C-alpha cells in the first residue's frame, strides 16, 4: 500500500501510560503495512528525547514541544468559540509538516490518534483515506466532570463537553472510519452522532503478554504485606479521586479485619492531595517506579476503584495479565471481556472493602482468580489479535468523497 501519515497528540513512546500504550502498538502495526510519517507533540524534554526510539518504525518524523499553557489555550478558545482541547494543540509546525508530507509523499491513509489532532487533517486531502481513532468519547468525560464540579468549573466543563461533542461528531462525519476502544464507547457515540456501523466501530486494546508475564522474574519491593496495589498516572483526576476515596473510606475497614494490609499507590506525578495520603496508616505513595511489574507481582490484590472511567482500563488488563486477583469498580470493568466473579471481582464503593477482605483472607480463592485472569488475557488480549482489523481499515477505499 501507499504511505501512512500518523498524527498523535503525544509521542507514542515509551508505552508506559494508557494513551502511549495504545498509540505505540498502533504505530508498530501500521509500520508493517506501509511507510509511516509521524507528527506528534512532546510534553517535555524527556518526551522529545524518546522520539528517536521510534525511528525503526517511521520513515520521517516531526516532534515538537507543546508549550501553550492552559490559560493561554482557554483565552484562545473563548476568543474563537472553540473547545479548549483543540486550542491547547494548535501548531503551525504540525500543520506545515502535514501539508508538506501530503504534498511530497504518496500518502494513502491519514491515521489520527486522539481527537485533538483531527484539526490538522485538511478539508482537501485528495485521495487519502482518513481513519480517526478517538479512543474514548472525550466530550462525555467533560460532561461527567460538569455533573460533579462546582462553579465556575461546572460551566467550563459543560462548555467543553458541548463544543467538543459537536466537533467529535463533525470529525466522524468526514472521516472514513472512526474508532473507539470498546463497544460501550461505540454505542455511546453512535447515540450522540447518529452515525452507524459503517462509520463507527470498536478497535480494542491488548496487552504485551510477554512483558506482563508472571513467569518473568522481576524485583519486588520490600514493603509490608499483604499488599493492595493501585497503578496509574497520579495527577489524572479520576485516578486521584479513586485512591483518595479508597484510602480514606475502604482501607480503614480492610485494616480492621486484616491489620497489616498496606495500600500502595503506584504511579508518576502524584498530586499534592495524593502525596498527603502517605500520612495515613498503611498507605504508601511511590511516585514513578522503574518497573510496575514488581509491584503487581507483589500484590495480594490489585484494585481499580474508579468512579469515572472511559474506555478500557489498561491497569486492569496489566494486572490480570500478571495473574493477580483484581477488584474493579463497575466503571473500570466496563468494556473488559471477562467473567465477573470468575476472572475478576466487580464491586462498587459500598462493596469493595468486603471484596478485598475476601481475597486477602482466602489466598487459595485469590490464586484461582489470578490464574483465570491470566488465562483470559492469553486467550483474547494479545495486541496481534486485537489489532488484526487494522489492515482492512487503512487499506479500504474511500467511503465517501469529501
Provide a brief overview of the structure.
The chain is an alpha/beta fold and 402 residues long. It is 43% helix and 16% strand.
Sequence of strands across the biggest β-sheet: 3-2-1-4-5-6-7
The strand count comes to 13
The computed structural class is: alpha/beta
CATH superfamily of the largest domain: Glycogen Phosphorylase B
Mean pLDDT: 95
Helix content: 40-55%
Gross geometry? globular
User: End-to-end distance, in Å?
Assistant: 21 Å
As a whole number of angstroms, the C-alpha radius of gyration is 21 Å
Oligomer: single chain
Spell the H/E element sequence. Answer: EHEHEHHHEEHHEHEEHEHEHEHEHEHHHH
CATH architectural arrangement of the largest domain: 3-Layer(aba) Sandwich
Instruction: Specify the CATH class of the largest domain.
Output: Alpha Beta
| Number of separate domains | 2
CATH topology of the largest domain: Rossmann fold
Strand content range: 15-25%
Poorly predicted segments = none
Largest sheet: 7 strands, parallel
Give the count of helical stretches: 17
Amino acid at each position: 500500500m501507499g504511505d501512512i501519515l500518523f498524527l498523535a497528540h503525544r509521542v507514542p513512546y515509551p508505552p508506559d501510560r494508557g494513551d502511549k500504550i495504545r498509540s505505540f502498538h498502533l504505530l508498530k502495526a501500521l509500520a508493517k503495512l506501509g511507510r509511516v510519517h509521524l507528527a506528534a507533540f512532546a510534553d517535555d524534554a524527556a518526551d522529545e528525547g524518546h522520539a528517536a526510539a521510534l525511528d525503526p518504525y517511521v520513515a520521517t518524523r516531526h516532534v515538537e514541544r507543546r508549550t501553550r499553557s492552559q490559560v493561554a489555550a482557554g483565552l484562545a478558545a473563548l476568543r474563537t468559540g472553540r473547545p479548549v482541547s483543540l486550542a491547547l494543540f494548535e501548531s503551525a509546525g504540525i500543520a506545515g509538516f502535514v501539508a508538506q508530507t501530503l504534498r511530497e509523499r504518496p500518502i494513502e491513509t491519514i491515521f489520527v490518534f486522539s481527537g485533538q489532532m483531527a484539526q490538522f487533517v485538511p478539508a482537501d486531502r485528495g485521495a487519502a483515506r482518513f481513519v480517526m481513532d478517538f479512543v474514548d468519547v472525550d466530550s462525555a468525560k467533560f460532561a461527567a466532570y460538569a455533573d460533579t464540579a462546582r462553579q465556575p468549573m461546572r460551566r467550563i466543563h459543560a462548555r467543553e463537553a458541548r463544543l467538543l461533542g459537536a466537533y467529535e461528531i463533525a470529525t466522524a462525519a468526514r472521516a472514513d472510519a472512526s474508532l473507539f476502544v470498546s463497544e460501550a464507547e461505540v454505542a455511546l457515540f453512535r447515540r450522540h452522532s447518529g452515525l452507524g456501523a459503517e462509520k463507527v466501530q470498536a478497535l480494542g486494546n491488548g496487552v504485551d503478554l510477554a512483558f506482563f508475564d508472571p513467569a518473568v522474574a522481576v524485583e519486588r519491593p520490600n514493603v509490608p504485606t499483604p499488599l493492595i496495589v493501585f497503578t496509574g498516572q497520579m495527577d489524572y483526576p479520576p485516578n486521584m479521586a479513586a485512591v483518595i476515596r479508597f484510602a480514606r473510606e475502604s482501607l480503614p475497614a480492610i485494616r480492621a479485619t486484616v491489620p497489616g494490609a498496606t495500600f500502595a499507590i503506584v504511579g508518576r506525578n502524584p498530586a499534592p492531595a495524593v502525596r498527603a495520603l502517605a500520612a495515613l496508616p498503611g498507605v504508601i505513595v511511590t511516585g514513578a517506579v522503574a518497573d510496575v511489574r514488581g509491584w503487581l507481582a507483589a500484590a495480594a490484590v490489585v484494585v481499580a476503584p474508579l468512579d469515572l472511567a472511559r474506555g478500557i482500563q489498561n491497569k486492569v488488563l496489566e494486572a490480570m495479565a500478571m495473574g493477580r486477583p483484581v477488584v474493579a469498580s463497575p466503571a473500570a470493568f466496563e468494556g473488559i471481556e471477562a467473567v465477573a466473579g470468575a476472572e475478576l471481582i466487580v464491586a462498587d464503593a459500598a462493596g469493595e472493602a468486603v471484596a478485598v477482605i475476601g481475597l486477602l483472607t482466602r489466598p487459595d480463592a485469590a490464586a484461582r482468580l489470578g490464574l483465570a485472569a491470566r488465562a483470559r488475557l492469553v486467550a483474547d488480549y494479545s495486541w496481534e489479535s486485537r489489532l488484526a482489523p487494522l489492515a482492512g481499515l487503512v487499506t479500504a477505499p474511500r467511503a465517501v468523497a469529501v
